[in-house]
Design brief:
Layout lengths: L5 E19 L2 E15 L4 E7 L3 H4 L3 H9 L12 H9 L3 H19 L3 H4 L10 E3 L2 E3 L4 H13 L4 E5 L4 H19 L5 E5 L6 H13 L2 E5 L7 H10 L4 E3 L6 H9 L5 E5 H4 L2 H13 L3 E5 L5 H14 L3 E2 L12 E2 L2 E3 L2 E3 L9 E2 L7 E2 L21
Parallel strand pairs: 5-6, 6-7, 7-8, 8-9, 9-10, 10-11, 11-12
Antiparallel strand pairs: 1-2, 1-17, 2-3, 4-15, 13-16, 14-15
Helix pairs in contact: 3-4, 6-7, 8-9, 10-12
């Protein structure tokens, strides 16, 4: 089947308000600034993609740099859009989040044109019903009682894993993890809910090493990025004496960085994200590299809206990744996308073609690629204007 030609490509920057501030060692914000890309093909099918614009701590890019990369693309009337995959590959070298937008929006449109869910189009095994994918429940910074309240709610909602942000005051973090363990055990039974901890590179090697022992005491399943991303020596020092598995997150972006982590003996597992990899092909190569090096593989995302969550869920299904963060929209107060469901701690992928998510952004509110100006960042209206693709 010949892929239909792209005839329109336009983007928008949207501020998604949060119920609670997102806080960890490298972020403190009350909203998610997200960039959307819409692609329309000659056969009338439309594809969408979403990426974080205020996740510079992980992607090294802002909404301004992402939209600048999109504005620098040729207009959709240019012959370069005959090969969107090549455009995405070219973007990936200098702006992976922009590459992600082009790659996913085009793949979404193509899967819709073919009448299949994106995870099937990406090579996943077709089932009678869409897959049910277990996901973490996130627990951000706060005091021990706030952590316990969030953990209790997660266990009562059927989550089998929670992931807590650490990396601040070790004494406070230890108290928070202790209360989380008490809370989930009280609801689900001793050890029934797995706990992971993520320091986002917030500690030095000595603090991270000390933390591994008290984290082990609370049955933490793995400890993610205890030390700064650029210091693989420090990460390896923590892993050398750790009684629990150490995972790399900010330190891995592609297959080369996965091999570097493995060569350094710095991790037992890796947490990969499309926002950092840029394209599905690059992400798939990184997953393959990790598996060949004997590393556990987790798939994650930046905190985002439902469209971004749907993207990660389809990728997890296609790549057969069992440990995944798929519900980064949990804290979003008002979204512009709908169609993805969470039930009993698991995401249910829609059976609809493509990503299976409806986006309520009208095409007239978007800026065509190739335009050199950038529109101001709008807030999400309480009742966003809807548009059927």
């Amino acid at each position: 089947m010949t892929a239909p030609r792209v005839t329109e490509a336009a983007y928008a920057v949207v501020a998604l308000p949060l119920r609670l501030r997102l806080r960890h060692t490298t972020a403190d914000t009350g909203e998610l600034t997200v960039v959307f890309l819409r692609i329309r093909c000659a056969d009338g099918h439309v594809g969408w993609a979403e990426t974080r614009g205020n996740g510079e701590y992980a992607t090294h890019h802002t909404a301004a740099s992402i939209t600048a990369a999109l504005a620098a693309l040729p207009p959709a009337t240019d012959a370069a859009w005959d090969d969107p995959a090549a455009l995405a590959d070219a973007l990936a070298g200098h702006c992976p989040p922009a590459a992600m937008l082009v790659d996913i929006a085009w793949r979404d449109a193509l899967a819709r044109s073919s009448g299949v869910p994106l995870w099937v189009a990406l090579g996943g095994v077709r089932r009678a019903a869409g897959p049910r994918l277990a996901t973490h429940a996130p627990i951000g910074f706060g005091d021990p009682e706030q952590a316990a309240t969030a953990a209790t709610a997660a266990a009562e909602a059927g989550f089998g894993r929670v992931k807590v942000r650490v990396g601040g005051d070790p004494a406070l973090d230890r108290a928070r993890v202790a209360r989380i363990r008490q809370a989930v055990d009280a609801v689900a039974g001793a050890g029934a809910v797995a706990i992971a901890a993520d320091a986002n590179g917030g500690w030095d090697a000595a603090t991270g090493t000390a933390a591994t022992h008290w984290l082990a005491g609370y049955g933490v399943a793995w400890f993610e990025q205890p030390t700064p991303a650029a210091d693989l020596t420090a990460l390896a020092r923590v892993r050398a004496t750790s009684p629990i598995p150490i995972w790399a997150d900010e330190a891995v972006r592609d297959s080369a960085s996965v091999h570097a982590v493995a060569d350094a003996g710095a991790a037992d597992g890796v947490h990969l994200k499309l926002e950092k990899a840029g394209t599905v092909a690059t992400l798939s190569a990184a997953v393959d590299a990790a598996r060949r090096r004997g590393l556990d593989v987790g798939l994650g995302q930046m905190d985002c809206g439902r469209l971004g969550c749907a993207t990660t869920a389809h990728l997890a299904a296609a790549l057969d990744v069992q440990v995944a963060e798929l519900w980064g929209c949990a804290n979003v107060e008002r979204d512009v996308a709908e169609g993805l469901e969470l039930r009993d701690g698991a995401v249910l992928l829609p059976d609809a073609p493509g990503l299976g998510v409806h986006v309520a952004l009208h095409p007239t509110a978007l800026t065509p690629v190739g335009a050199r100006h950038r529109a101001p960042v709008p807030a999400v209206p309480k009742q966003p204007r809807t548009c059927t693709p």
